[in-house]
Design a protein that fits this description.
Chain B: One of its GO terms (cellular component) is Golgi membrane. The complex is a heterodimer of chains A (about 350) and B (about 180). With about 350 residues, chain A is mostly helical. Chain A contains 22 helices and no strands. Chain B starts with 17 loop residues before the first strand and ends with a helix. Classes of the chains: A mainly alpha (about 350), B alpha+beta (about 180). The interface between A and B is large, with 75 and 56 residues.
């Protein structure tokens, strides 16, 4: 124990620049930002300290202190250093909820978002949208639409995710960007297509008919992105739940088709949906056998996913789960406590006498 | 974000999947943490209490995943650092796992495979940027470590020798 403490002391003195930071001293250091020319490394370190303090959340910044720090930070826009600029964006985002008059950086950020430097653009969009309120949105709407269909995938993703965040405060405005988002669904980039689907589905949330159209179209020519596929499975599953007639058959077929996908994430998503939708044990068989395989995986998160979904099934179809009793018994002594607990409770619920004896 | 905890219900079709991400040191102290859902642990005090609890339950058992206080947490540790990604207990665990892999791999590349506390603190700014590139307000932004690092580690390595520490010079020599 004493050895450990010595080692700790040695470590603490061994250059942790973030030990015992004090808010007032940092705010004084931030005055250094006014100097010109800017020293990127030194300023970046001060910004890191500010962010570290905010992240620790123990020394609260008053509105005045946050505003002071924010305005000091804006002086750094004169530097062209990419890393420093990115740290400035991060600080703007973190301080925007605490400081006043943050909209003064709007024009600087708009310039970066439409500028030539690709490394600025995506991050500038996200920072800009975090300080913009719905009244200011109109002014940047045109740029946002362009950014959504930008060739650079980071820019496109940043604009789509920002649009999604904004849709909670300015839904009508963001709905006008749906055409651009629609176009981005077919992007080659997996993340862009995922974000675009999220935005489009979100804008149609209360419009069942157009959701049906969207899902039907995409289920015919499935997306490449595993993340987008997971989302599509969820959308399809919801439609099945709302309307259990024969009209839902194509969705079921699409989901079952996803059981044969190469990504485990998608396979599990499909199995989980089927287990929660299908009514008879026979229809469940393919999904249950996938979950059974998961239970024998070497990865703990797969075992947990399999066991957890099977545990849910016990309430509806104890017989279907009983078929997996042996696999679940193997999990009783699983090194992962969460997995073992799930296995035990599931077995007790299915309660086959043969397994109780063992 | 309304989450039904109903038994046997479907996953919610949303992009807001990540509830939080954090990196703790080997005493369970926070190095970096972000929580994305205002309804879950809104104050720093609650968050730190949760982190302590999480750490106590995970630092000895390297079991990859745990269900705690209504959240699913996937985790991974190395030397004296612990990486966690949290999501709703009603979420596809494998998606959370992929976010954790992204976080760990990105940090690992940034730290030139020396994933330990001191090296991380020396590169804290880059790690903060990587954090920000992986998840935006609970939405998974990118899962490709190479592109994340490409956007987070932009330090121009042109520090004059006189301003470098001995450790940095040694590190540069090692990496040649």
């Amino acid at each position: 124990m004493s050895f450990k403490r010595d080692k700790k002391e040695e470590e603490d003195s061994g250059g942790n620049p973030y030990q015992n930071l004090d808010k007032t001293i940092i705010l004084q250091e931030a005055r250094y930002f006014n100097q010109s020319p800017v020293n990127p490394r030194k300023c970046s370190l001060i910004l890191t300290k500010i962010l570290y303090l905010l992240n620790q959340g123990e020394q609260k910044f008053t509105t005045q202190e946050a505003t002071e720090a924010f305005f000091a930070t804006t002086k750094l826009f004169q530097s062209k250093d990419v890393m420093l600029r990115r740290m400035v964006y991060l600080c703007i985002k973190e301080l925007s909820t605490l400081a006043q008059d943050v909209i003064i950086v709007t024009s600087s950020l708009t310039k970066d978002m439409t500028g030539k430097e690709d490394l600025y653009r995506a991050a500038a969009i996200r920072a800009l949208c975090s300080i913009t309120d719905s009244t200011m949105l109109q002014a940047i709407e045109r740029y946002m639409k362009q950014a959504i269909v930008d060739k650079n995938s980071a820019v496109s993703s940043a604009a789509l995710v920002s649009a999604l965040h904004l849709s909670s405060t300015a839904p009508d405005l963001v709905r006008r960007w749906a055409n651009e988002a629609q176009e981005a669904i077919s992007s080659e980039n997996a993340m862009v297509s995922y974000h675009a689907l999220g935005v489009v589905a979100g804008s149609r949330r209360n419009d069942k008919l157009s959701t049906v159209k969207l899902v039907t179209r995409l289920a015919r020519a499935p997306l490449k992105s595993p993340y987008a596929l997971c989302l599509l499975i969820r959308l399809a599953a919801q439609l099945v739940e709302d309307d259990d007639s024969d009209a839902a058959q194509p969705y079921i077929e699409f989901i079952e088709c996803c059981l044969r996908h190469k990504s485990e994430m998608v396979i599990y998503e499909a199995a989980h949906a089927i287990v929660n939708l299908r009514k008879t044990a026979r229809d469940l068989a393919p999904a249950v056998s996938v979950l059974q395989l998961f239970c024998g995986s070497s990865k703990a998160s797969l075992r947990l996913a399999g066991a957890r979904t099977l545990a849910r099934l016990t309430a509806k179809h104890p017989t279907a789960v009983a078929a997996c009793a042996v696999d679940l018994e193997n999990l009783i002594s699983d090194p992962n406590r969460s997995v073992a607990t799930l296995a035990v409770t599931t077995l007790l619920a299915t309660g086959a006498e043969s397994s109780v004896d063992r | 974000m309304v989450h039904t905890t109903m038994e046997g219900s479907l996953f919610e079709p949303t992009l807001y999947i990540v509830k939080g991400m954090c990196i703790l040191d080997n005493d369970g102290n926070r190095i970096l943490a972000k929580y994305y859902d205002k309804d879950i642990m809104p104050t720093a005090k609650e968050q730190k209490a949760f982190e302590k609890n999480l750490f106590n339950k995970t630092h000895r058992a390297n079991a990859e995943i745990i269900m705690l206080e209504g959240l699913t947490c996937v985790y991974k540790s190395n030397v004296d650092l612990f990486f966690y990604v949290m999501g709703s207990s009603h979420e596809n665990e494998l998606i959370l796992q992929s976010v954790l892999n992204t976080l760990y791999e990105s940090v690992s590349i940034l730290l030139r495979r020396n994933v330990e506390r001191r090296v991380l603190l020396d590169n804290l700014d880059a790690v903060m940027l990587a954090f920000d590139e992986i998840c935006d307000g609970g939405v998974i932004l990118d899962t490709d470590p190479t592109s994340i690092v490409g956007r987070a580690a932009l330090r121009t390595e042109d520090v004059p020798l006189g301003e470098q520490t001995v450790a940095q010079i040694l590190q540069n020599i090692m990496n040649m």
